[in-house]
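REQUEST ID: PR-0412
SUBMITTED BY: lab tech R.K.
PRIORITY: routine
TASK: structure prediction, single protein chain
INPUT:
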Amino acid sequence: MQVQSEPNRSSLPEAPKGKWLTSLWFGGCLAATWLTAQTPDNTATHANPAANISASRPDHSTAGPPMALDLQQGWLQTNTADLELRLTKAGQILISLRPRGSTFDFLPSDQLEFRARPGFHHWCDIILRVRPAGESNWTEWSSARAARVVHALESSPGAIAVADLDPSLPSDFPVSIRRTWAVDQGHLVLRFDLRNRANETVEIGGLALPAVFNNLIHNFVTRRARSLEETHETCVFFDPYPGCDAGYVQVTRLNGEGPALLVIPWGQTSFEAWQPLREPARPMQTFEGTFAWTVHSRAWTEQEWSPAEPWNPPTSIMLAPGETRSYGLRFVPAGDIRDLDAALMRAGRPVAVGVPGYILPMDLEGQLFLHYGQKVREIKADPPGAIEVIPFQPPSAGWQAWRLKGRHWGRARLTVTYDDGLRQTIHYYVIKPMPDVVADLGRFLFTRQWFEDANDPFGRSPSVMSYDRETDRILTQENRVWIAGLSDEGGAGSWIAAACKLFAQPDPDQVQKFERFVNEVLWGRLQYSEGDLQYGVRKSLFYYTTNDIPGFTYDPALDWRSWTSWSEQEARSVGRGYNYPHVVIAYWTLYRLARYHPGLVQSHPWEWFLDQAWQTVMFLTSRTPEGRARVGYVNWGLMQGSVFVELLRDLQREGWADKANAMEQRMRQRAERWARQPYPFGSEMAWDSTGQEEVYLWCKYFGFDRQARTTLQAILGYMPTLPHWGYNGSARRYWDFLYAGKIRRIERQLHHYGSGLNAIPVLHAYREHPADLYLLRVGYGGALGPLSNVDPEGFASAAFHSFPDSLRWDPYTGDYGLNFFGHVMTIGTYVARHPDWGWIAFGGEILASEPVLRVRPRDSLRQRFFLAPEALWLTLDAGRFDTVEYDPGNGRVRIALAPAEPFTPAAHLRIETTAPGATRRYQPATALPVVRGAFQISLSKDVTQIDLIPEDR
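STATUS: complete
OUTPUT:
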């Protein structure tokens, strides 16, 4: 280890230059500012999510309070085997952490000019809450709010810098703090030694270590949002795994490329909770905020977080007079995102992998694989009996394994205790069997959320409308008018979910209701049916006006003065491109139901629905006589835009060549534009995580593989796999509670609609690369995530609140339907053979494995089956799989199809080999008629079996 002293900070990296992203980012930020300002400030101190977001805009000026960091004395520079780091000489604050030989920095070193002010947290800070033993009131101290005065001490062997923080402490504070930066086992370590300097025992009930990385999509120094290029090359996201002694934080670049980074415990440093911190710069759409690894949380849980059920049991420790307790964190680099588990193993940390993830349907046997140098002494479920745990021996002796059965609905936690005393918590969510969840959702949508009022002045009846679970009523008015206006994501979400439920589980009565909605409300009201705007989609049916509306009164308790309360003219606008996939989903669903389930749809022939969907897309992509786009945002990827790919394929299958070619030409123009951009997935926001779905699929369709890979990697940068149901497969999203939630704040949303939508491209990529199990773990976590949002009665929440004062589902349905769309478009049963774990099934039950593999699908639709060893993708346009058998010896596959249903007399089977290098293709062993490119199989009252035989290519 070599330590160098630098005289100044002139060689710190400058902010990368790039083109400023235009679009409506500024309007979005103003929206976030206003909406956030309305959040009541009803809690206090560091964990207060409302107080974290000030009502005023951040102070960007260079004048103001004195700097809290002394940067003039220069810094100390040193290296580990993999990292280059810089500490300020004054204060010993970590200001830069780079991979060796790289200009990329995990820390916001280019923002020091802004973040050097008082109140900002850095790697070096510590937050404590203490009290004398037996007393009730806590005293809090934070080094970020104190004068940054330290007493530098002589470094011991292996240490980079050592300091006594006592000069910053109040004279009556009972705990003395020594901080050490060191290199231990080749890794950078930040350590704190806490000593009780009082004459009585002290309880430490709050201990938090701020974790600061460069998640600043907003460049506060230049006062602008970073360009997409700059954002993806410069910024990182970080995801917590609050797994107690086995917890960690993983840090990934926004472009999804390496290197990555892990922050893991040093010594006895548990990861109990993840809390947001208050800083001068409020969170907004381009800055998620700053967070802290919380070791002891009892003090916060007793106070600000008391309404919530914590991830882990809160703890505190007693420190006797003169006693010292040490805590610390290690920084462990990883080559890339897929290397994170291996990096944990190299560092001697436990690794947990759940199959099919950590959302556990009650009829599906899950598996848990653990890798650690110690044997498991005990596994306990909390609540008791929530999950049944049965050990088994996997093929590899390096892993320990258990079979899991979910017994009680809701959140559950497994606590694993190893022989060395290390405790690891793994977080699960137990749900009903997948088809039951979908059925519950449908019943709730078409009963409790069904709105029928012939006198509604806004023309919204009959329809499936947004719902407030706290009041258990339909939202007939909201000052964010789109929520009550059946459009935008927050208002269309419920009827999108209704369409997707019918796609997954057709029900005659529900189909009849949905046809009424389409014919009486969507066509002619929400979507113009005549004139120059024919096929244009309105922004909202509900609006605000000061004019009298007979029989209707606006709720005086709501504030109708902001931009969110659109006027009638604004609500009638057809310019928001994101609304068009919603309408296409409605028409396309009824087309598919009419085409593949004879007699089910009554109001129009299938041709009408297919043409309506096509006309909607053509209006979306049309231009005015002057050559301007008629609809905004059309050049970005649109969430749910994957429905356009499905629509095009159906146009081609039906032989509608002229319309298919016209649509394909429009889509090619968009895709060619994306192919010229380094990061082609912009949106109305400065950074987003939903347009990637459509961009990826069109790039694959037109052969732009490089851009498809760039898009996939970006998804992996914000969509992690972790041993926690809420974060596993949960695509990062943190501002849409402002636009579609009841609790309005900037906050990481767990299983918001990014989960389901981003699962579509990730699982598509897995089918092309079936050896890449990382893709399956991430993608299936996203595909399964939307079912956790549905409660036992069928209410579906927009997303889960991750802040520790809440940890609950938002009461609004909001934009949930987009999440469920992702689920129904990609959920299936995926079967692979792992060298260490043997046969594994995501979404299915393995009935037998030797000599012939036999699997029963347990997923929601039971219409998709992927056999990884053969890259064989079997899909049904109608009918359902009962079982699938596979003989690895000769490659033979036998499928059993469930009996016929009243509106499903035949199955339509598609067979595809998805991996470019696969050596076999499959065909039915007996001749079957081919209809629209699928094999048609007549069904009976019994199970129908079909053999598929492989042919070498």
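NOTES: Confidence is low (pLDDT under 50) at residues 1-65.
REVIEWED BY: pending
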